[in-house]
Recover the amino acids of this structure.
């Protein structure tokens, strides 16, 4: 039996649905992490414990040793009942922000014609990571003259994709790896490939930037491993204000 085949290839037109889905998923998956982190936050657990004990006291569900082993299970329904509102509340509060991130990403200037958009600079690229013939990750790096443009596109206002050239600052617009493949750090190969291409394809590129949330642990870890440093925090996400920041890598710090 031949070993599994993994390869990195350039984007093709028929990959559009796959890439759009990956872009949406990469921005929405932080919702599950935010809900989990909020539910296990020390403040949440403290409030949950106090309310649960108050319910046990009100309902007089304290353990009753005289009933044997089952008598010690009396308080459990109170703890379970108090957990449900927290789970629903956190999802209700967190979801709008993450859904907005998805909509912003899918209305970005690169989305209407990704093939042409990432062909404007030799240092740009949109790559798919395949494993056994199935796409498991994407990386989109924009080194065009308007690489730092974040204005949204509409059907009546399409971005100008005719301008060609290379900026000194390249931007990783999208990055995503399917969760089962993150355990083996396969994301490092894709990220390193994109960075090496940007710096070697055009000498004008002197810096690479990426905006990343602290909720996407595998991405921030990959950035740190490649030498990226946090330039500044730009916004916060979720009920507990997890930070989103801009990470940068200078060319002289990159190790090919």
């Amino acid at each position: 039996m031949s070993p599994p085949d993994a390869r990195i290839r350039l984007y093709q037109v028929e990959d559009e649905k796959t890439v759009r889905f990956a872009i949406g998923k990469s921005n929405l998956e932080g919702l599950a992490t935010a809900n989990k982190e909020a539910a296990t936050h020390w403040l949440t657990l403290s409030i949950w414990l106090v309310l649960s004990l108050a319910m046990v006291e009100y309902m007089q569900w304290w353990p009753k040793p005289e009933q044997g082993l089952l008598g010690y299970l009396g308080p459990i329904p109170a703890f379970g009942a108090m957990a449900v509102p927290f789970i629903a509340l956190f999802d209700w509060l967190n979801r709008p922000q993450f859904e907005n991130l998805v909509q912003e990403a899918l209305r970005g200037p690169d989305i209407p014609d990704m093939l042409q958009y990432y062909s404007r600079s030799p240092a740009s690229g949109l790559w798919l990571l395949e494993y056994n013939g199935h796409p498991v990750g994407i990386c989109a790096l924009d080194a065009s003259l308007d690489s730092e443009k974040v204005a949204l596109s509409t059907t009546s206002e399409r971005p100008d994709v005719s301008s060609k050239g290379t900026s000194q600052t390249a931007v990783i617009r999208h990055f995503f790896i399917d969760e089962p493949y993150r355990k083996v750090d396969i994301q490092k190969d894709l990220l390193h490939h994109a960075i090496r291409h940007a710096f070697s394809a055009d000498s004008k590129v002197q810096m690479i930037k990426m905006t990343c949330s602290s909720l996407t642990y595998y991405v921030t870890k990959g950035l740190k491993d490649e030498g990226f440093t946090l330039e500044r925090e730009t916004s916060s996400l979720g009920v507990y204000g997890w930070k989103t920041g801009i990470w940068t890598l200078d060319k002289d710090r990159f190790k090919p």
Remarks:
- The CA atoms of residues 227 and 254 lie 6 Å apart.
- The chain has a mean pLDDT of 90.
